[in-house]
Amino acid sequence: MNTSDPAVVLIEGSDFETFPAGGQLSMSRALMKLFGSRLALVGMSRPGWPTGRWTQKQISGTPHLFFSVVRSEPLARKPFIPARFAFYAALCRHKRGILSLKCGAAFTQAPEALLAISRWSWESLCFWFPGVENQLKASRYAFAKPLAGLFDKALFSALDRVDVILGAADEDAINALVCRSNGRLARERVINVPTCVDTSLFHPIPLSSARTALGIPANCTVFVTVGRIGRFKGWELLLDAFQLFLKSNGNALLFFVGDGEDRPNLQGQIDARGLDSKVTITGFQTSNKIAFYLNAADAAVFGSLLEGWSVAMLEALACGKPVVSTEVSGASTMISSSRNGFLVKNRNPVDFAEAMESALYLPDAKEISLSIASEYDLQQLGQRLAALWHPLRGDGYSRQQLRSEVGERISLGE
Predict the structure, then answer these.
(1) Residue 99 in contact with residue 121, Cβ under 8 Å?
(2) pLDDT at 364
(3) Strands 54-59 and 62-71: what pairing?
(4) What per-residue confidence (pLDDT) applies to 406?
(5) 230-250: average pLDDT
């Protein structure tokens, strides 16, 4: 199928290339790799790209129809207007232009996008929860948190108009989502589909080769964390724990691979603690470069307060690394305690530092991590998504047929 006849409109608050970095962008990129030009893209663009009309955009060698609703770029501080609200408003403003493509199916992971498009004239709509927590509760904006209840009410109303609901979360988290809906959302409607990892990009390479490529000394202990630098990612816990780790092992380094609105605060803490020679913020990195950093690590560490099914954690496992993490959705499935890592449930820096030390001496961690990662390979995700949602099959569909199939899966307990 060429770009003149896409099967699905993928709608995300990103430029589908580099910004904003994080799990949702990684999953969008994975979908684009799986389904290619069958996906038309609606999102953001950098300054200089036209907005408000369909254009063609070449991404990783594949042409996509692309509609930019707003121009944006990474900022060192949070924007005055929240990016999610700006994207929601831009989608509403450009409804007519987006629908002019006359593509009947839409897919999004962005709750703000779902709120904007759920009442549009789609033949079929699929929503994938990248994490099932109420995002306003972890907002950077003080005014947003009191609106969390209203946000939930609007979200559950929008989900009434969705054909297929996917959840990248474990059973406990999905059950909590259903409970939060106060009976509005039935458990059977949420299909558990964890995120995936592209093992063609993330796979083991010799530690020495990765360190040489990155200029990292061979004779030191290296910890790596990957993801957006925001408070909800728990960078303070990681910094506290690493500082404690240094008391018993001074020849160690910690790399924050990523960027985000809290980078100045993190850098300020690094400088204030005199850790500038021990802790490095790399800024945004390509997937290939992230794979090098993970392979250069002795262990990967994650301190999130909340999370969906962590893409970065899967990428670390696919590189054969032990993982130390806080207890977030999916972590207990990806980490076999005392075998390929540790879960630190109490967010205590002392306990986290001890787990970092212990993770260095797990004899079978590489084999166990690789075995777990193999269960979440990208190609398996593609097959499952195509089975769950007709528009991704490329063999035609109808809304009535899709609803019938979903009903059959529910009755069979799938």
Answers:
(1) yes
(2) 96
(3) antiparallel
(4) 45
(5) 94
How many CA atoms, within 13 angstroms, populate the side-chain half-sphere of residue 197? 28
Q: Residue 1: which pLDDT band, with cuts at 50, 70 and 90?
A: very low
Amino acid at 345: K
pLDDT for 314-372, tens place per residue? Answer: 999 999 999 999 998 789 999 999 999 999 999 999 999 999 999 999 999 999 999 99
Query: Rounded to an integer, what distance in angstroms lies between the CA atom of residue 215 and that of residue 174?
Result: 42
SS3 47: coil
**Closest-CA residue to 151 (of 87, 91, 85):** 85
**Apex 88 CA angle, 82 and 94, nearest 5:** 135
The most distant pair of C-alpha atoms in the chain lies apart, rounded to whole Å, by 63
Closest residue by Cα to residue 316 from 393, 224, 378, 392: 224
Tokens matching residue 51: 């907005």
Nearest 5°: phi and psi at 199? -75, -5
Beta-carbon neighbour count of residue 217 at 10 Å?
9
Distance (Å, rounded) from C-alpha 307 to C-alpha 172? 13
Residue whose tokens read 């904006």: 141
Nearest CA to 223 among 200, 190, 245?
245
Single pTM value for the model: 0.80
The answer to whether 136 and 117 have CB atoms below 8 angstroms apart is no
Two tokens, residue 372: 């777990």
- Each residue of 309-318: pLDDT tens digit? 888 999 999 9
Q: Mind listing the domains of the chain with CATH numbers?
A: 8-196+378-411 (3.40.50.2000), 207-374 (3.40.50.2000)
